[in-house]
Amino acid sequence: xxxxxxxxxxxxxxxxxxxxxxxxxxxxxxxxxxxxxxxxxxxxxxxxxxxxxxxxxxxxxxxxxxxxxxxxxxxxxxxxxxxxxxxxxxxxxxxxxxxxxxxxxxxxxxxxxxxxxxxxxxxxxxxxxxxxxxxxxxxxxxxxxxxxxxxxxxxxxxxxxxxxxxxxxxxxxxxxxxxxxxxxxxxxxxxxxxxxxxxxxxxxxxxxxxxxxxxxxxxxxxxxxxxxxxxxxxxxxxxxxxxxxxxxxxxxxxxxxxxxxxxxxxxx
Amino acid sequence: xxxxxxxxxxxxxxxxxxxxxxxxxxxxxxxxxxxxxxxxxxxxxxxxxxxxxxxxxxxxxxxxxxxxxxxxxxxxxxxxxxxxxxxxxxxxxxxxxxxxxxxxxxxxxxxxxxxxxxxxxxxxxxxxxxxxxxxxxxxxxxxxxxxxxxxxxxxxxxxxxxxxxxxxxxxxxxxxxxxxxxxxxxxxxxxxxxxxxxxxxxxxxxxxxxxxxxxxxxxxxxxxxxxxxxxxxxxxxxxxxxxxxxxxxxxxxxxxxxxxxxxxxxxxxxxxxxxxxxxxxxxxxxxxxxxxxxxxxxxxxxxxxxxxxxxxxxxxxxxxxxxxxxxxxxxxxxxxxxxxxxxxxxxxxxxxxxxxxxxxxxxxxxxxxxxxxxxxxxxxxxxxxxxxxxxxxxxxxxxxxxxxxxxxxxxxxxxxxxxxxxxxxxxxxxxxxxxxxxxxxxxxxxxxxxxxxxxxxxxxxxxxxxxxxxxxxxxxxxxxxxxxxxxxxxxxxxxxxxxxxxxxxxxxxxxxxxxxxxxxxxxxxxxxxxxxxxxxxxxxxxxxxxxxxxxxxxxxxxxxxxxxxxxxxxxxxxxxxxxxxxxxxxxxxxxxxxxxxxxxxxxxxxxxxxxxxxxxxxxx
Lengths: 268, 620
Hints:
The complex is a heterodimer.
Chain A: H1 2-14, H2 18-27, H3 29-56, H4 63-95, H5 114-149, E1 154-161, E2 164-169, E3 174-176, E4 179-182, E5 187-193, E6 198-202, E7 209-211, E8 217-221, E9 227-233, E10 246-251, H6 253-262
Parallel strand pairs in A: 1-5, 4-10
Antiparallel strand pairs in A: 1-2, 2-3, 5-8, 6-7, 6-9, 9-10
Helix pairs in contact in A: 3-4, 4-5
Chain B: H1 5-10, H2 26-45, H3 53-75, H4 79-85, H5 92-98, H6 115-143, H7 154-174, H8 179-183, H9 185-188, H10 197-219, H11 233-236, H12 240-268, H13 281-312, H14 326-360, H15 367-381, H16 399-408, H17 410-424, H18 433-456, H19 458-464, H20 468-498, H21 504-531, H22 545-575
């Protein structure tokens, strides 16, 4: 051990290896304090993300809503270390601040640091790549599910007009101002506007699509929980935009069939 | 003055006081503009059936343009071009008069070509616009304090939202490049003035004519469409919409002129020795911002011309019933709209980057990374517009590609953070007001950036689009980052622009009221958005009452802070402590000239031998 040590020191004096540079760097007190603060902020963000989003976001009533909330929490976790690092360094320098009416002494003349710039760029690129891959995967999963569900899906034609939503069930052969959906059966909303742009938003179902004049747009999901969901308009559509809202229900298949019959439709 | 001497001496000129130019100012402009508007209005009206909305819209819109042209005639903007047309030019003495030589306060009310006068005109104009926009915001938040509020009617509420939006967007686009880009930037690069001084005066006065036009919307029934003015809602909207259309078209002319002028100035008029890698970073950021505006704003102008035609003569560009498309409008709008947010953001960030090295007394960390960050953002920003249309139903198959370009913006944005953090690293920041704003920026931009990544992701956007969450996100970037940068720039350059120091204590009070209030305000809005409250709603369900109340409380705190800032600016401008030539010990050129800055800035043209960030002690 001792015989190796002298060799070791000699090489360090001449030219420290990258590994030695890093370990020396990590021993510095400002580095340790900055990183300590960074870990603290990371934890704050992780706890906030894990706690706040499930608390703030409404009841999960569909497959899509579940995926949305999952994604919000996951992205908070992913971005937490970067936010933590930025805030850690910023907070440490803030604590070192200089007060008074004269400028402080000059700091070290660090014009740039190649490895730091490269590592930072690679790390942020990897995080961006992760977000992209995640998003693309979610998109594909959604598209594939919609394609396989298309045959058994119940189709609801949604029309937005200033300032009400109306619903038509073509296969069942009736129209209604109410939106009721059977549990666990895929639904496809075919959305259109009678006048200006609206945006159909069944909040707890986690999907949203614009209602355009003479262009049908569509959104698919599968309700997974019985209960009431809110329907809102998410695109400013004139005077009573704020009041263009109603509620819909997810109900058991037998309740749904009864409702369809009562409306004068036939089950399909 | 010095450089014009040889011209003045070469050919004697008749007494300039007889020249028409000396008799024109804002007052004559307003009078001629009003006459133009009134004459055109009644002339076009005669014989038309004004109960037909198309006719009414046509008459109003043309009258508004007549006001703008009339004002410019009345203030003398066309005297120079007219002389060229008849083969002459302004006399040298007239040129000196236009530069505001020896005119005191009155030059601020004239068609003045001195870039410093234009800068002050922009500063006052922007503060007025922010004041109006802020007041509208307070009215919005007051109405939203409690559910079921009947303080204003839904019609008035929608107008408040539309006017707040467009007033703030216009103000924020010029908030840094207007005052600092005109006053400070030419001095920073060692130029005697802008490349095109008369265009510089034109850009300000054209913008000025848009302000009364925008205000007239209030008396014409308001703007019911929000600042996005989506068709077909905008085609259906009442006469107030004409004011919106006219404002945007006039404003687009102004920004095109400014963009060309600042770009040309920086490219051609840098001091001897100021190579591209010695240009101060604020100049780089402001130039990239205005250069980005040059391709972006014409599409906004085009979209507004098409809206105007749909509204006035019955074209059907945006009417699906007759072969048009609302999506066409959305595309034109967002092809401008997304670059535009970076047009707003970059100068503010660049001002902060200029500030950090001065107050930390260290070189700017990795100047090249900063430039790469700015250019990367600017380059990507023209390829991301359809992320505003994920849920519009327009070609869902393109959502993937637009998601990729949008999320890639986080990479150059990361470089911006790296540059600021790297400059802070191992420094002892001098905690004056401009430096304090840097920390506010880091926090706000972090929140704005991360929430932007959620929103850029299609599945999350399916839920969040059109909700209060989006409103909170873009206020974090535009107000929390860009406006914070502009206010930092004001605190930093105030001594050079006014000759006095900004009142420090009032500045700190304003800072904390604004920044803490801001966090409360938009935390509440993130919550109500995540809970499912749509944006731009006059009323909301009782379940959102807590988060909306939080937002309103925060908004009042911001409002109080802004009043402190206003007091600080007005008081300091009149009675503040006299500023030394270089109060911050900075190394850029604007701090080498005295106050008041002489007419052509430098007695001897400066020669540049290094970048302006030569702070710091060398180690080992």
